[in-house]
Write a structure and sequence with these properties.
Elements: H1 2-7, H2 9-24, H3 29-42, H4 46-60, H5 69-89, H6 103-112, H7 119-147, H8 150-172, E1 178-179, E2 182-183, H9 190-210, H10 217-234, H11 237-255, H12 257-276, H13 278-284, H14 302-313, H15 325-332, H16 334-339, H17 349-377, H18 383-393, H19 408-423
Antiparallel strand pairs: 1-2
């Protein structure tokens, strides 16, 4: 563990400087960070640039006013990292091009901007989604070529630092880590922390399978303790179930994809039975308080959100009104929805996409997603279990409909890593421990 701190001391220093500048220098931070990124690119600090992007996305999820700079700077960051990726990979023969399966979706999303009440915001969100899928996977490929498994170790280190600091702050300054009586660590809300941990556990599991000696036994135990403590502490039921689904199906897919698929079909069949008795199951496991069984009956307000979304969908069935329209319509009807017991947006990626880009856009997006997962499944048997978990998770959260958050980037990391390992299957990069 000590070696991880030594290997990532530059990342720690850079992150510290950015946070201090963001808190104390006001608008100057919007000059300091871009200039630092240009200097880092000149000095070929590509590992720190990629990890810094992940750090900024993580900080942007925070509700702390002092970290609000991250929500603005990430829009500049995605432009710069896309530029760096293009510069480094333009002449490379090795590329990851799974973005091409989303081109029809991107084109439709661009068309839908014309129907949006805030066309500028909608165009920003579409552009960031396109840049994330087109350039970040190839930048990760470039960094992996240069640093090997040190990239993986650094991602693990960064997430563990975020989780550990959340736990420490909870003991000494709990007002930073508690929201409405629930633990949220350094993330914006408890469900966000749950998603963060779920997606990281998938990344960690997939990478550990390919690099069994990546971390020592004690380090692996530390990672799992931090993750599962945070996951149970935040009480995010959807993320806990998604995590369990991934590890359950991953075990059986390792034995046989056919067995795994039939178990998936069986799970669908018994889903209603489990749902009807979920309160009793959780209570019998002694997790009633942690997983908030009292809120299961009303779905924590999600039922209200879903009914409202469906009402709006019927007005724009085939073509939506552009990215960010869901946020707009829910914000516009905030008072009405609050009286019904709901705060927030649709809490469902499929409904959100349907509202934003219509049924046609939803089909195009899910089609592209299915294709890249099926291609990844030919290279790694963990891909389909991950797909099941992602589909389940997005039934209750809308994280996949946004690009610049600390969740979608982790999906990109997992899928990119699977394709990257295939590119280098005949060429072993040294494990830089």
């Amino acid at each position: 563990m000590k070696q991880l701190f030594i290997d990532n001391k530059q990342l720690l220093i850079i992150g510290f400087i950015w946070i201090i500048c963001g808190i104390y220098t006001g608008p100057l931070v919007y000059v300091v960070i871009p200039l630092m990124l240009l200097l880092m690119n000149k000095r070929e600090m590509h590992l720190e640039i990629l990890l810094g992007f992940f750090l900024i996305l993580t900080l942007s999820d925070s509700r702390s006013h002092s970290l609000s700079f991250a929500a603005d700077i990430k829009n500049i960051y995605i432009l710069l990292i896309s530029l760096f990726s293009f510069m480094q990979m333009k002449d490379s023969e090795l590329k990851i091009n799974f973005y091409k399966y989303f081109i029809p979706f991107f084109l439709l999303a661009l068309i839908c901007i014309g129907f949006n009440p805030n066309m500028f915001l909608s165009s920003q969100k579409v552009l960031s989604y396109i840049l994330l899928f087109c350039f970040v996977p190839n930048y990760m490929l470039f960094v992996y070529q240069k640093y090997g498994s040190s990239l993986i170790r650094s991602i693990i280190f960064m997430v563990c630092m975020v989780l550990a600091l959340g736990i420490i702050f909870n003991f000494f300054k709990s007002d930073l880590t508690i929201l409405a009586g629930r633990y949220r660590g350094l993330l914006g809300n408890p469900n966000g922390l749950g998603l963060y941990v779920f997606l990281f556990l998938v990344f960690f599991s997939v990478c550990s399978d390919d690099y069994p000696e990546l971390l020592g036994r004690g380090e692996k135990v530390t990672v799992y303790l931090l993750c599962f403590y945070s996951l149970l502490k935040c009480g995010a039921r959807t993320s806990l179930v998604s995590t369990l689904l991934f590890f359950f199906f991953k075990r059986f897919y390792k034995i046989s994809p056919i067995i795994g698929f039939f178990l998936f079909l069986l799970t669908i069949v018994v889903y209603n039975l489990i749902s009807d008795n979920l309160t009793e199951i959780i209570t019998s496991l002694g997790l009633g308080e942690e997983l908030r069984v009292s809120s299961i009956e009303n779905g924590s307000g999600r039922e209200v959100a879903w009914k409202f979304a469906w009402q709006q969908i019927n007005e724009n069935f085939f073509l939506g009104k552009g990215f960010s329209y869901t946020e707009y319509i829910y914000r516009k009807n905030y008072e009405y929805l609050s009286l019904l017991g709901h705060e927030g947006a649709a809490h469902n990626s499929y409904l959100t996409l349907w509202l934003d880009v219509g049924l046609i856009g939803l089909i195009l997006f899910l089609g592209g997603l299915l294709v890249i997962f099926l291609k990844a499944a030919k290279l790694n048997r963990a891909a389909i279990p991950f797909l099941y978990a992602v589909l389940f998770s997005n039934q209750y959260e809308s994280w996949l409909t946004a690009s610049l958050n600390p969740f979608t980037i982790q999906l990109i990391f997992v899928i990119s890593f699977i394709f990257i390992k295939d590119l280098f299957k005949d060429e072993k990069l040294a494990i830089n421990c």
